[in-house]
Amino acid sequence: MNGLCRTRQTMCDRWLHFNDLPFELMCEIFDYLPLRDIRNASLVCQHWHEIIFSEVYIHRFRLLLNLDQALPALRQMALLLEASEREYYSVVLRANLGSPLTEARLKIVKLMIRLLAHTADSLYFNMADFRIESCVSERSLRGRRLQIIDTRAKYIPLGMGLKESMLAAICEYAINLVDLVIAEMNINNPKALVPLSSLRSLKLLLISDYYPYVKPTEPPIELPALENLSLIGVTDESCHYFRVDNLKRFFIHSTGTDAPRTMDFITQNITGVARLCLHFTARSIQADVIFGWLERFPNLLALELAGVALPVDVLKHLNPANRLQKLIFVGCHLEAILLDEFCVKLGRLRLLCFDRCSLFHRDSGFHPIHHKDLEQLRTMLPRCQIMLDYE
């Protein structure tokens, strides 16, 4: 009798083992867990790990919603999403972006942004394709994602109202954001950036394709914690809209062609940086003027200058009292490898780099700089590290 009971008990134990459940049923059970617990469950055993990271189960975290539904259906959808505790790694909202941006549709968009941004330290917002992604692990790996897709394939709407609403939602729901990238902005109204002032913990801000057409009516946007500001593919006026007293690094890739005008806009609100990166698209930029303006940056230790022509007397306006320790030329055309007054004007220099630069040869024109071209400089500057590539 005892042997029979033991046999039945053994059979029951085998029948009731969790790992013997069907794949679909185990997925249903795992669905009750938030993403943090799902990650922990994947570490329990190899079997659970294979289920959780299987392609079938991963796609359970993808949500596809149609925002073109009637108003009652949209309201019901919003109520369901608010009541749900499910976390999605990818949300796709399909909508006719040419239609009016109703409050019901916008509510769902904001709700998804709130869920996405609630625990994110870093966000990437591509305004060209209405995509927001959270970034984790050293600001490089993309985590959860939200994208809005136009249902009309042949029509590309401007969607200015939607862009500004999505940016405002980020600033409202992610007030502790540390890093923010706004790519392909293509908004020329500076008022769209005013909500950024609520991000008091922001340390890194990158904005590309920003062409403001008027000066702001309100004071510049203050970002007290910002340490790194990058403006890529922008007009000179774009840097006028920010006040950043604790900035350590400023990068601008300007479409302007007037060096004094560019430097004037920069120095109105940005002068305390230790590193200044100036990239231009026009070789006609007066590089000597830029060096003359450097005395407005009392803490400047590193200068990166790109895309300009460097005459032999380019340092003529540089104040010898400057504190420059690093000088990086990127994609520049040099008239001579040894610039006039180099040793006098740059006595504190410890690193000099020529990254993808060209040197003029009287007989054959411009050619890429090679190691042999730097031998004279290395002899004259034994305490300065001279490089061809900068990382």
Automatic annotation (TrEMBL):
Gene3D superfamilies: 1.20.1280.50, Ribonuclease Inhibitor (3.80.10.10). The lineage of its organism: Eukaryota, Metazoa, Ecdysozoa, Arthropoda, Hexapoda. It comes from the Eukaryota. Residues 15-61 form the F-box domain. PROSITE patterns: FBOX. InterPro entries: F-box-like_dom_sf (IPR036047), F-box_dom (IPR001810), LRR_dom_sf (IPR032675). This is F-box domain-containing protein.
